[in-house]
Design a protein that fits this description.
It is a single chain. The chain has helices at residues 16-24, 53-59, 72-80, 93-106, 110-131, 155-161, 180-186, 204-208, 224-227, 231-244, and strands at residues 11-13, 31-34, 63-67, 84-88, 137-145, 148-150, 164-165, 176-177, 190-193, 217-220. With 248 residues, it is α/β, with parallel strands linked by helices. It has two domains: 11-123, 3-Layer(aba) Sandwich (Rossmann fold), CATH 3.40.50.1980; 135-244, Nitrogenase molybdenum iron protein domain (Rossmann fold). The strands form two sheets. Strands 5, 6, 7, 8, 9 and 10 form a six-stranded mixed beta sheet that branches. Strands 2-1-3-4 form a four-stranded parallel beta sheet, with helices on both faces. α3 links the parallel β3 (63-67) and β4 (84-88). This is ABC-type transport system periplasmic substrate-binding protein (Probable substrate iron/cobalamin). Residues 15-207 form the Fe/B12 periplasmic-binding domain. Keywords: Signal.
């Protein structure tokens, strides 16, 4: 394996969020491998949870980036194989922003990471200020449809930053299954569908066809804009603020 002392490390993004962060920092040139779910045009090492270790070995990376508790066993396997791994596992908005600096440090771009973190905090504060005078609306954010899963992790905070209230998960908690009765009792003003892996192809009409007794506006949001702990999340918060308060 190459030495991490090289000025330009060879980096494999084994998580889509990692390739998105690195690309946003203008450092996509250091990526030598990505997953099938990444948007960067590089050799593919497999899926997010199904890396091809033989393929990975041929890329001779200095650093491999993993993310989320679901990749913890992959992280451990990679370390057992002798790789240097930068593992990110944020579950709050602050954690996501801090992870930008952690990843930047790992790839030798600490100044760029600090700048991105500062800009992101300013972006978040701008959205909060913009919606501060609006009435808070109740939101049901659904990460998965069958069974219905209310979004957790940083999503409750993202909704709060956008001027909403998501009473189904506390910030930092994992997403969880909810019942029709539970959602109806909360009487959401807005439903946000951001189903994992579906992009913008979720069908809002399918939600109406469930027959749930909910009088709410239904929005479909690209899942990367809420589910991915990358700069895309903060773009998603801006879009969410516009959707939740379009009539304010």
């Amino acid at each position: 394996m190459s030495s991490t002392s090289d000025a330009t490390p060879r980096v494999v993004a084994a998580a889509p969020s990692a390739s998105a962060i690195i690309s946003h920092m203008g450092a996509a040139d250091i990526l030598v491998g990505v997953t099938a779910h990444c948007s960067v045009d590089r050799p593919v090492i497999g899926g997010w949870l199904t890396p091809d270790y033989a393929r990975l070995e041929t890329l001779d990376p200095d650093i491999i980036c993993t993310a989320d508790a679901l990749q913890a066993s992959i992280r451990d396997e990679l370390r057992d194989r002798g790789y240097t791994v930068c593992h990110l596992e944020p579950n709050t908005l602050d954690g996501v922003i801090n992870s930008f600096e952690t990843l930047a440090e790992a790839i030798g771009r600490p100044t760029v990471g600090s700048t991105l973190a500062t800009q992101t905090r300013e972006q978040l504060n701008t959205v909060r200020h913009r919606v501060a005078s609006n009435s808070t609306v109740t939101v049901y954010a659904e990460e998965w449809a069958d069974p219905p899963m209310a979004a957790g992790n940083w999503v409750p905070e993202a909704i709060a930053a956008a001027g909403g209230h998501h009473p189904f998960c506390d910030p930092g908690e994992r997403s969880r299954e909810v019942t029709q009765t539970e959602v109806e009792k909360a009487a959401p003003d807005h439903v946000v569908l951001h189903h994992c892996g579906h992009g913008t192809h979720t069908n809002a009409e399918a939600f109406h066809e469930r027959g749930w007794d909910i009088d709410a506006s239904v929005h479909v949001l690209d899942d990367d804009l809420l589910n991915q702990p990358s700069p895309a999340l903060f773009e998603g918060i801006e879009i969410l603020a516009e959707r939740l308060h379009s009539e304010s």
